[in-house]
Amino acid sequence: MRVLVTGGAGYIGSHTLLELLAQGHEVCVLDNYANAAPDVLDRVRALSNRPLRDETGDVRDRSRLDKIMDDFAPEAVIHFAGLKAVGESGTNPLGYYDVNINGTLTLLQAMQRADCKRIIFSSSATVYGEPQYLPYDEAHPLNPMSVYGRTKLMAEQILTDWAAAQPDRATVLLRYFNPVGAHPSADLGEDPRDTPNNLMPLIAQVATGKREALQVYGDDYDTPDGTGLRDYIHVVDLARAHLAALSYAATQSGARPFNIGTGQNYSVREMVQAFEKASGRKIPTINSPRRDGDVAAMQADARRANRELGWQATHGLDDMAASTWAWQTKNHNG
Length: 334
Ligand code: NAD
Ligand code: UD1
Known about the structure:
It is a single chain. By secondary structure, the chain is of the alpha/beta class. The protein has eleven helices and 13 strands. Helix 5 runs parallel beside helix 6 and helix 9 packs across helix 11 (317-332).
């Protein structure tokens, strides 16, 4: 299939490119490198040994998209391009609505003009908000607690309405839980431009000595060890979910959300221990107050994705920690 991948140079996008190329898809990337290194696509070409088209540009640029649609004629789009920092979304809401909502609208308009009918969208478990029960299934009420989360929910609604307007359109909404880990080559991974916000990159920076200690945000939650529980998913498993979603979209119509997680969860302390084991280094921690907006626990009910997409996570915690450590040491050298 010819697949246009917006934001394909990013963390999840780059891993997905490898899976697409390995399965023989023809791929074109559109990325403006707002949050990606320029050499990522060369690494993907080297690892896959396959040709890859790329366009440097913004997903809000309609004339650029029209030209890509005319030249490449994608049969499906995977839409990763977007802004994702929860804290920043509160201080720059218009910037987030512009990229995440206008970007999605512009893309859909260009797809509609070119009669491209299938789209896979990067949504997030953050659309659920405070859990009313766990694990979250796809029928859980949607009540995101941040601007970022609201942009994801609004984009889901726009995509759902677009799919409903014609009987042969398909939208797959992938609600990712907590992506971690790196490609086994250690040539692709998460490369936060500024200070990371997420747990794994922060632990990795403590292990290399770049940071003195990990702040543990809250040790008095109602969880077995008092620290927050999350459903961490290896990025290679997550990348493969997009391939399963593409196959699904080839035969189904309408819009359908899927939780993409492992169905298990781990505490902050368990993540630290796994990383200590993988790196052979001690990770000093400091107990700190709870972080605003955090919930005690999150966990996916991923059975719909198992059943309908034929997809299942296969990588465990040790692999998540070991691959993060290999990526960190190979590329950042402490
Ligand atoms: P990322 O920042 O690594 O990748 C996003 C890519 O989009 C980057 O390469 C960036 O340069 C590009 N981009 C940003 N704005 C653009 C624009 N206006 N035009 C073209 N390209 C643009 O992030 P990621 O972790 O790979 O996330 C990919 C998607 O998944 C995002 O939509 C994100 O919101 C969503 N998501 C991520 C997580 C996570 O924890 N990483 C969790 C849930 C959902
Ligand atoms: C965060 C976002 C969420 C987004 C997700 C994936 C917030 C409030 N939520 O979720 O919207 O979808 O990232 O990008 O920002 N922790 C520490 N110390 C740290 C960092 C984190 O103890 O220095 C803890 C957190 O309290 C949490 C766990 O580690 O219990 C995971 O945190 P993080 O990686 O930031 O992910 P989420 O909070 O799940």
